[in-house]
From TrEMBL:
Stored PANTHER family: METHYLTRANSFERASE LIKE 7A (PTHR45036:SF1), METHYLTRANSFERASE LIKE 7B (PTHR45036)
Species name: Prunus persica
UniProt-recorded name of the protein: Methyltransferase type 11 domain-containing protein
Residue span, Methyltransferase type domain: 137-236
Entry GO MF terms: methyltransferase activity; S-adenosylmethionine-dependent methyltransferase activity
Length: 307
């Protein structure tokens, strides 16, 4: 497979449904105008055959709390803006501003130990995008902790999706800190089950700690595949259910209902690796590790899926 990229347009359209043009990064149509272990460095490939919460409030406190948070993400196919907004509100019902702001601020300050420990795995994973992906969609971008891994790549354009609009100021600050020009970054409030992007409009999709808390994992994966161009890749880091019969799995099963309540829908016992493997990507590489800072949200699954 050969990766084709297109030049981006520095102009950012008003918030709304997103479409793609042959000569620019996907841009949104004004909604008011619409009626309708260790990762081997050579284990991934970007072209050819691969061989390889939204962060939630509790997950944000992963280093200090028993109940960590998970990100919830993004998007549906070619929806009129009114339908897209309806799905956003169904999946992520409006919260009070003070709650959304508190949630965002906690995520911005409480994930550092987790990010420090996962950094080596992420660095190897994100290295696969360097020089190969210019249009990147990150679902569940949250406060933008991943921007530092690919923002330095010349010409990269990032479209960040998160249902909590209060994340935007933190994500924009993270973009600046990472050296990503704000003209190359756009934040849109959306959910993973309804991505307001056109078909085959991005080179890569990134999602970390997201599928634990989306309401429909299969639909979100279908949306990820839809917006990826042929030859594009999906990079992921997720926490998944521990092995059956272990004390950790038993603990996760007991605490899962409480986790969903406290962490805005985050599930402790999802078989996310199985879901990704069965979602129709041409090739999927999965690796696993455990992190001391991740408490009960272990093991951690990471890898690349190729379209």
């Amino acid at each position: 497979m050969i990766l084709h990229t297109i030049p981006f347009s520095p102009n950012i359209a008003p918030r709304g449904l997103i479409t793609s043009r042959s000569d620019s990064f996907p841009t949104r149509v004004n909604s008011d105008a619409s009626t309708a272990g260790s990762l081997a460095p050579d284990s991934f490939c970007f072209s050819g055959v691969c061989s390889c919460g939204r962060r939630r409030f509790v997950e944000a406190a992963v280093a200090t709390s028993l109940f960590p948070i998970c990100p919830s993400t993004s998007i549906a196919s070619k929806l009129p803006s009114d339908n897209y907004t309806t799905i956003l509100e169904e999946v992520h019902p409006p919260r009070p501003d003070w709650y959304e702001e508190f949630y965002a601020s906690v995520l911005n300050t409480s994930m550092q130990s987790y990010e420090d420990e996962i950094a080596g795995y992420k660095a190897e994973l994100f290295a696969e995008l360097k020089g190969k992906a210019q249009q990147v969609l990150e679902i569940g971008i949250g406060t933008g902790p991943n921007l530092r891994y690919y923002a330095a790549d010349s010409g990269v354009r990032v479209f960040g999706v998160d249902p909590n609009i209060k994340m935007e100021k933190y994500a924009r600050a993270a973009a600046v800190a990472a050296g990503l020009p704000l003209s190359n970054f756009e934040f849109v409030q959306a959910v993973g089950e309804a991505i307001p992007l056109d078909d085959a409009s991005v080179d890569a999709v990134v999602g970390t700690l997201v599928l634990c808390s989306v309401k429909d994992v299969d639909k979100t994966l279908k949306e990820i595949k839809r917006v990826l161009r042929p030859g594009g890749v999906y990079l992921f880091v997720e926490h998944v259910a521990a092995k059956d019969g272990t004390l950790l799995r038993f603990t996760q099963s007991i605490l899962d209902p409480l986790q969903q309540t406290l962490a805005d829908g985050c599930h402790l016992t999802r078989e996310t690796g199985r879901s990704i493997s069965k979602s129709g990507f041409s090739d999927v590489k999965l690796s696993m590790t455990s992190l001391s800072s991740a408490s009960i949200i272990n093991p951690q699954l990471f890898g690349i899926a190729c379209k």
